[in-house]
Amino acid sequence: PHCPYCTMVKNFLKEKGVEFLEKDVSEDSEAAKEMVKKSGNLGVPQTEINGKIIVGFDRIALEEELEHIK
Fold first, then answer.
1. What's the structural domain count of the chain?
2. What is the 3-state secondary structure of 5-30?
3. Tens of pLDDT along 19-52?
4. CB 38 within 8 A of CB 48
5. N or C: fewer beta carbons within 10 Å in the chain?
6. What integer pLDDT is reported at residue 69 of this predicted model?
7. Confidence at 17, pLDDT banded by 50, 70, 90
8. Is the pTM of this model over 0.85?
9. What CATH number does residue 38 fall under?
10. Looking at the predicted structure, is the pLDDT value of residue 70 above 90?
11. pLDDT: is 70 or 45 the higher one?
12. Residue 63, CA atoms < 13 Å, CB-side half-sphere
């Protein structure tokens, strides 16, 4: 299924030159279980940076976490 916020996160990370691993939880049940176990949340997208989970497309939170890895 199409997820506009997932696309927004992917485009944002690409613009920033950040490599990422994409997991399609709609087709990968193990990835879905792992996602819920880590975050306690079913919402997508979920982005993990340095162990912190960001649910949805939150540009400010993403930028703040990316600053920590530069």
1. 1
2. HHHHHHHHHHHCCCCCCCCCCCCCHH
3. 999 999 999 999 999 999 999 999 999 999 999 9
4. yes
5. C
6. 85
7. very high
8. yes
9. 3.40.30.10
10. no
11. 45
12. 4
Taking CB atoms within 8 Å and a gap of at least 24, the contacts of 56-64 are 56/5, 57/5, 57/8, 57/9, 57/12, 59/12, 62/9, 62/12, 62/13
Tokens of 49: 């940076």
Place of tokens 């990968």: 28
| Tokens (6 digits) for 43 | 């919402």
Domain residue limits at 14: 4-67
Cα first-last separation, the chain: 33
Quickly tell me which residue has 């030159």 as its tokens: 17
Q: Which two tokens stand for residue 13?
A: 């990370």
